[in-house]
Every structure is written in C-alpha cells, then in structure tokens.
Amino acid sequence: MEELLLEAERAEEKRRVELDRLRADQFLSAIASLEQRISEINELADSEIRLIEEYRNTELTKIQKKTSWFSWNLEQYIRSSGEKTINLPHGCIKLRLGRDKVNIVDLQQFLKDSTNQKFLKIVPESYQPDILAIQEYIKTTGHVPDGIELKTAESKFFYLTKRSNENGKEQREREDKVRAATESTDEGKTT
User: How high is the pLDDT of residue 165?
Assistant: First the structure.
C-alpha cells in the first residue's frame, strides 16, 4: 500500500497512469485507505476540539465567577457610599436609575374612568392605553389612575474599565455584561 502511495505521488507529475483491472482495484483500495485516514484525522480533530471547548468553558466559567464576585463587591461599595459615580484610576463605577414601568392590570376598570380617555391611543377599531402618556401623567401629578400598577424603577449598577491599546493610549470600554441591581447576593459571594 505504501509503495502504491509513493508511486502515486511520483505519478502526480505525469498526471495519468496506465491502468488495468488489477491496478484499478489497487487504486480503489488505496482510495479506501486514504478515506479511512481522513476519517481518523477528522475523529481525532473533533475529539481535540471537544476537549478544547470543554477547557475553554471551564476556564471562562471560573473567570466569570471571579468577575461577578468583583462586580458584586463594587456594587455593594458604591451603594453604601451614597454616590452615583465614582471615578477610579482603572475605570469608574456608576449607579443609574432606570425607568418606572406601568402595567395595565385591569383594562376594563381603566377604561371606565373618563379622565383616563386622554391616555388612549386611537387605533382603528381598538383602544390601547398610551403607556408613555400615562408615565408622564404619573410623573407630573403623582396620581396613579385606576386599573394601573406602577413598578418603580430600580437603580442598575454599571462599570467601565480602562485598557491600553497597542499605542499605549488609554481607552474606555464598557463591559458587555452589566450587572443589574437585582442580581442575587449568593452569586456575588461565590469565588
């Protein structure tokens, strides 16, 4: 078989080899052998890729747990400080207040009150509450109309880190995972 493969490598320059039935069968056998090697190489590569993916996932999980722990501690620090933004040499940490959320819990009760008619969007053949108008009304008057449930906004925790680029200039990058104020305490304490 090896001899046949060496001959094939030499014959590649000529491109064409004279065949008879025996040589054609030998070529088919060589192709089957090469296909088997291709299959073995693919299986080995797939197995190595799986091992590498498992390693990557394991290592990233460890790093993400540590990042969550650091982030949780930074959030606790800024919440206890009473400040909304703290600039530090390696970045800054912030608390931002989200928006209040209005839920229509009883549409029929909401529609019964004639003063709520100004909060309706006119859509042909239907009436829908105008959430933005309701939010603005609640914000200005403090009165929550009947049939409305107000969920007050929670402040969310953000952080920025500074990293150096190839030229040595500092640039700020927002972390793609922003920690919300609703993260559980148990997750943050894990290392």
Answer: 47
